[in-house]
Write a structure and sequence with these properties.
CATH topology: 434 Repressor (Amino-terminal Domain)
CATH architecture: Orthogonal Bundle
Number of strands: 0
Radius of gyration: 11 Å
Number of domains: 1
Strand content: under 5%
Number of helices: 5
Order of helices and strands: HHHHH
Helix content: 55-70%
Shape: globular
CATH class: Mainly Alpha
Length: about 70
């Protein structure tokens, strides 16, 4: 079972984007990005929508393999 943070990290890395650059584009901190990727903090719906735009991906890719 995958986690959201793993998908986020993989997609960010596929876009050749560091946590710092991604954080700047998201308007947040590198620490917050790290927390999302490690599953310590759940992003808000607003931030998920922004991630989709910044990473040029879709909701399905961010949630692929996640079981509720």
């Amino acid at each position: 079972m995958k986690k959201f943070g793993e998908n986020l990290k993989n997609i960010r890395q596929m876009n050749k984007m560091s946590q710092k650059v991604f954080a700047e584009k998201m308007g947040t901190t590198q620490q917050r990005v790290s927390e999302w990727e490690r599953g310590l903090v759940e992003p808000t719906l607003y931030n998920i929508i922004k991630m989709i735009k910044v990473l040029d991906t879709c909701f399905e890719d961010l949630t692929d393999g996640i079981e509720l």
